[in-house]
Amino acid sequence: MRRENDNNMPESSRETETEGEMTIRQQREQGNQAPHNVVSLISQFADDNLTLVRNISTGLAVAGVIVIARSIKLITKFQAASEIPARFIERNVSLRGKVHSITERGLEVEHIPIHLPVVSSLLMKHKGVCTMVVHLAGVELTPEGREWLQKNMTPSQTVWLKLISRENDMLHCLVSQSRQGLMWSYCMNEEVLRLGLARTAPVVGVQPDSRLYWRLHKRLHRAEVKAEKKGRGLWKQDSLWERASKALRDNALFRLMRKIFKRT
To answer: How far is CA 111 from CA 21, 88, 98, 192, in A?
Structure first.
């Protein structure tokens, strides 16, 4: 009897082991089916509510753009020089603008922020026209130079203001404008110097020993030298006949003779 029981024990243990393996396999299959069922449910919900999912995605995208735009002031319309963040000036950021008038103080420019179709209308606070005073950095304009700017800078054209420094309520910038019919723009600071309608001046608000100062000074001085060599504007030289006539008029003997002839 003992031998028979001994012989039957391995078979029962094999059956137990087989049942245990089957149980483990079933648990694994159930475990694998659980994530699959969750994914299927999510997919089915997305298919049944496709419009809702799209609206939620669009809303999240717009909210993200608004947060980013607010943090970097991407679409903020600056009403005054004091509203421009200091980091914009430190990094010499370029802003878009529209010139409304040119006075003795400088250019009256309205800032035009970047326009985003939906976000701009949501965040736009000021809708009126408000201008900032912009000075051509490193340039001392003559009256002729001011008149030239009034003729050549129209409100219909967009200008770019590369921020250099800020002085109270005034911005010192490199002002660029596109030429009509051309793809590229030209710097108005250099242009008035190249035409002899201005003189170079110290760049306000920039340290004289900085790289930015010397880079700007070199660039503007090169334009002024071109005007001087070609005798334009301020550097225009009188002809030989004009110089001789002026010297004769300034001569004391000539003035005396004129007085004598007038008396007679």
So the answer is: 76, 14, 7, 23
> Hey, what are 120's tokens?
């701009």
Q: How far apart are CA 35 and CA 219, in angstroms?
A: 66
Cα–Cα distance between 118 and 89 in angstroms, integer?
28
At 60, is the secondary structure helix, strand, or coil? helix
pLDDT at position 179: 72
Q: How confident is the model at residue 1 (pLDDT cuts 50, 70, 90)?
A: very low
Question: Minimal CA–CA distance to 162: which of 180, 138, 142?
Answer: 138
pLDDT at 222: 96
CA 122 remoteness from chain centre: 21
Task: Identify whether the C-beta of residue 106 lies closer than 8 Å to the C-beta of residue 188.
Answer: no
Q: Which residues pair with 171 in a beta bridge?
A: 134, 166
Q: Which residues pair with 179 in a beta bridge?
A: none
CA distances from 210 to 51, 98, 102, 214, 216 (A): 57, 30, 30, 7, 10
Q: Mind listing the pLDDT tens digit for each residue in 110-130?
A: 998 875 554 445 455 556 678
Count CA atoms closer than 13 A to 105's CA, side-chain side: 12
